[in-house]
Amino acid sequence: MTDDNYRTALDAAIKEYEALGEQRRALDDRMAQLGQTIGTLTRLLGLTPTVPLGLTDACRMVLRSGHPMTPVEVRDRLLAIGIDVSKYANDLAAVHTILKRLNASGELRFITRQPGKHQYAWNGPTTPVALKPDIVARMHDATHEREVMGAAPSRGPRAKRTRRPR
Predict the structure, then answer these.
(1) In a domain? residue 155
(2) Binning pLDDT at 50, 70 and 90, where does residue 95 land?
(3) For residues 136 and 121, is the Cβ–Cβ distance under 8 A?
(4) CATH number, residue 44
(5) Is 102 exposed, middle or buried (0-12, 13-18, 19+ CB in 10 A)?
(6) For the range 27-34, what are the long-range contacts, defined as Cβ-Cβ under 8 Å and sequence gap of 24 or more?
(7) Per-residue confidence band for 36, with pLDDT thresholds at 50, 70 and 90
(8) Alpha carbon distance 26, 86 (integer Å)
(9) Winning range, highest mean pLDDT, from 55-59, 63-67, 162-166
(10) Which of 9, 62, 108, 146 is positioned for an S-S bond with 102, CB 3.0–4.6 A?
(11) Which residues, other chains included, contact 53 with Cβ-Cβ below 8 Å and sequence gap of 6+?
C-alpha cells in the first residue's frame, strides 16, 4: 500500500470513529432521559422497581441530562424521580461523597462558580482527532511564541517599601 492508501484508510477510520462517538453520545442522552421518565412514571403509579437503582447509578443518570448541577440540585432531582434516600442519615452528604468519587474517576467535571456554589457536569467521552503535519507545526510555533512572550526582562532591585502610618 502507498502512503495515499494509508491516508485514505486513516481518514475513513477517523470519520467512522467520530460518527460512532456521536451516536454513543446521543444514545447515552436518550437512555438518561428514558431512565428519568421511567423512574418518575413508576413513582406516580405507585409501583416498585423490579431492579433497584443504587445511589451512584441514580446520580449518573441525573447528571447525564447534560447541564451542570449543584449537589443540592442532584439530591432534589433524585427525590423528584422517586429514588429512596431515606436509608441515609444525611442524604446530601451521601450525594456529595458520590459526586466527589465520580469526579475523581473522571466521569464528572467539577465546575467552580461563586464561593460555596460549585457544580458537577457529566464528562462526555472525548473524540480523538488526527493532527496533520501543518497543524502540528502551527501548534509548535505557537508554543515557542508563548514562551518568548512569557519571558519578561528582569527588573532592577526592588525599592524598599515603607509602611504608611494608620
Answers:
(1) no
(2) very high
(3) no
(4) 1.10.10.10
(5) buried
(6) 28/64, 28/124, 29/64, 29/65, 29/66, 31/64, 32/61, 32/62, 32/64, 32/65, 33/65
(7) confident
(8) 33
(9) 55-59
(10) 108
(11) 39, 61, 83
For residue 9 the three cell numbers come to 484508510
| HEC-encoded secondary structure of the chain | CCHHHHHHHHHHHHHHHHHHHHHHHHHHHHHHHHHHHHHHHHHHHCCCCCCCCCHHHHHHHHHCCCCCECHHHHHHHHHHCCCCCCCCCCHHHHHHHHHHHHHHCCCEEEEECCCCCEEEEECCCCCCCCCCHHHHHHHHHHHHHHHHHHCCCCCCCCCCCCCCCC
Domain interval for residue 33 = 3-122
**Grid coordinates belonging to 161:** 517599601
Residue 46 grid cell: 405507585
- The C-alpha cell at 159 is 525599592
The model's confidence at residue 58, banded by pLDDT at 50, 70 and 90, is confident
Q: Give a yes or no: residue 164 inside a domain.
A: no
Count how many domains the chain has: 1
